[in-house]
Amino acid sequence: MDLTVLLVKGLIILVIFAITLGIAAYSTYAERKVAAFLQDRIGPNRAGPWGLMQPLADAGKMFFKEDFIPAQASKWLFILGPCLAMLTALMSSAVIPFGDTIKFDNYAIPVQAIEINIGVLYIFGVVSLGVYGIMVGGWASNNKFSLLGAIRAASQNISYEIALGLSLIAILMMSGSLSLKAIIDEQATFFEWNIFTQPLGFVIFLTCAFAECNRTPFDLPECETELVGGYHTEYSSMKLGFYLFAEYINMFVSSAFISALYFGGFHYPFMNEISQALEKSLGAITGHNVATAIGVVGYFGKIFFFIFFFMWVRWTLPRFRYDQLMNLGWKTFIPLAILNVVLTGAGLLYNFKYATWLIAIVMIVLAVSTMTRTPKREVMPQRTV
Amino acid sequence: MTTIIMTETLNFFKTLTPTGYLFLFLTALTLFSAIGVVTARNPIYSVLALIATFFCLSGHYILLNAQFLAAVNIIVYAGAIMVLFLFTIMFLNLRKEDEESKTNLTKMVSVVVGGLLMIMLITIFRAKSAQVPMVNSASFSNKTGLVENLGQLLYSDYILPFELASILFIVAMVGAVMLGKREAGDRHF
């Protein structure tokens, strides 16, 4: 390994780390702006132009608040909880390939912190560890509401991890590799994007990602109406900030993961034509780098769309009840995901990639037929006084 | 006498590669957290120490170039089974801690049983027939532990044990469902 290659690699790792933190910080701002937009308000607009300094102001406020540890709490675990949440959230963006390669001289360096041939499993492992931060913090608070929130988080995460993993297996069967880079390269042409070959898997994966991130409509661990503040009832100051921040980092990582798995990552339509034209006009190396940059920008566009989608859903759907959540996970998603795996396998036997559309079509037909068969309620005109 | 031991240990440390140092460090950490599992008074600390032990074991797998095994170890043991453990212990811990089950008799019995197990393991590992052959670095392929090779082996040479293990899991799952199922007249929690 050459020193320059090592330097560029280190730079990429640092930049990915910084970008993850920056995006998470501005997600808090975006969340409030999106909420304001959906509720016909203005939202934060005091700190800086259009309120752009709001994340900084929030962080400053968090740091200067009283840092409180309850007397009966287990002190070290109380501190360990938010640290674990933050650590596991930050670890997962390491294996995501944000772009193709950067070329200089004779080197081609992938825009990715580390390339391991089990990238998907790595992310899956880190995600499954994410619940420890919540559990440890909730238990250490020595508070019944915190404990109940922590236990809800644990059971919810375990339940939805199964469906998440099963919907992922269908993709692994199609690409035959556990490396994220290989999965992205599999989706080189537009109609081979996994969203077209795995529509059902995508829906299951997206919903499970919501549940894994504890986002509304699955944010039962912090359900205010039942549990005061949930697992972070006793937390204040930057420890609370870490928990909230970890949630936004998780949101960013799962958006990146969803776009990598189902929306072709850094691929975009007519990519080959564009990169060839660029290489012809700007020279092989510069053209390639510009093409890579376009891919990275496209990838971030997809990621931002999914972050927006997370927020859109949060301010649109109400929270599920806990039994509804469990029924949805165990009785709907797991059987559907298994069916998805079986049909994908059957399709791959005959070299047909779009086999799972069968389930999707059957489900749509069933839904439409039940909709038409249910008697229509009469529209009651609103009475005016 | 002590100087000889000192120089020998020093020489031993000089011969180590960075991987060797990493191995020693990881091993010390593993033993430390494994001892923590049995000595911790609070069951929650015990479980957390056990999770740390699993992490150290995964580190050992990575040192052996078995990335897949390391990742699966973390997903299955640290990520799923230990979460369930913690989950159960948190519920049990809502009541008062009971120290009464640890009488002198149980302590003695557990020491005897544990000592027997240790002697058995040591004799097994020291037996001539169980000795692992030395690695021939010329014919050794460093891709042995990677997922592709593991999959090839599992689905060709070891297909029968692999499938039998899956049947075992199905049986365990059905058993768990049977145990957890409510009968018609049972109390509704």
Would you give an account of this structure?
The complex is a heterodimer of chains A (385) and B (189). Chain A has 385 residues and is mostly helical. In chain A, strand 1 and strand 2 form a beta hairpin. Chain A is globular and about 65 Å long. The mean pLDDT of chain A is 84. Chain A has one domain. The relative contact order of chain A is 0.13. Chain A has a two-stranded antiparallel ribbon with strand order 1-2. In chain A, helix 5 packs parallel to helix 13, helix 8 packs antiparallel against helix 10 and helix 8 packs antiparallel against helix 13. Chain A contains 14 helices and two strands; from the N terminus they run αααββααααααααααα. Chain B has two domains: 95 residues, Four Helix Bundle (Hemerythrin (Met), subunit A); 42 residues. Chain B is extended. In chain B, helix 2 packs antiparallel against helix 3. Chain B is an all-alpha fold and 189 residues long.
How would you summarize what this structure contains?
Chain A: NDH-1 is composed of 14 different subunits. Subunits NuoA, H, J, K, L, M, N constitute the membrane sector of the complex. The complex is a heterodimer of chains A (385) and B (189). By secondary structure, chain A is mostly helical.
What is Rg of chain B? 22 Å
Strand elements of chain B, count: 0
Biggest sheet strand order of chain A reads 1-2
Question: Biggest chain pair contact, residues each?
Answer: A-B, 25 and 24 residues
Number of separate structural domains of chain A = 1
Q: Structural class of chain B, please?
A: mainly alpha
Mean pLDDT of chain A: 84
Say what oligomer this is. Answer: heterodimer
CATH topology of the largest domain in chain B: Four Helix Bundle (Hemerythrin (Met), subunit A)
> Which residues of chain B form runs of ≥5 with pLDDT under 50?
none
**pLDDT < 50 runs, ≥5 residues of chain A:** none
Main sheet properties of chain A: 2 strands, antiparallel
* Coarse structural class of chain A: mainly alpha
Strand content of chain A: under 5%
So what's the overall shape of chain A?
A: globular
Please give the domain count of chain B. 2
Order of helices and strands of chain B: HHHHHHH
Helix content of chain A: 55-70%
Distance from N terminus to C terminus of chain A (CA atoms, Å) equals: 81 Å
- What is the end-to-end distance of chain B? 69 Å
The level 1 CATH classification of the largest domain in chain B is: Mainly Alpha
GO molecular function (chain A): NADH dehydrogenase activity; oxidoreductase activity, acting on NAD(P)H, quinone or similar compound as acceptor; quinone binding
InterPro entries (chain A): NADH_UbQ_OxRdtase_su1/FPO, NADH_UbQ_OxRdtase_su1_CS
GO biological process, one term (chain A): aerobic respiration
Subcellular location (chain A): Cell membrane; Membrane
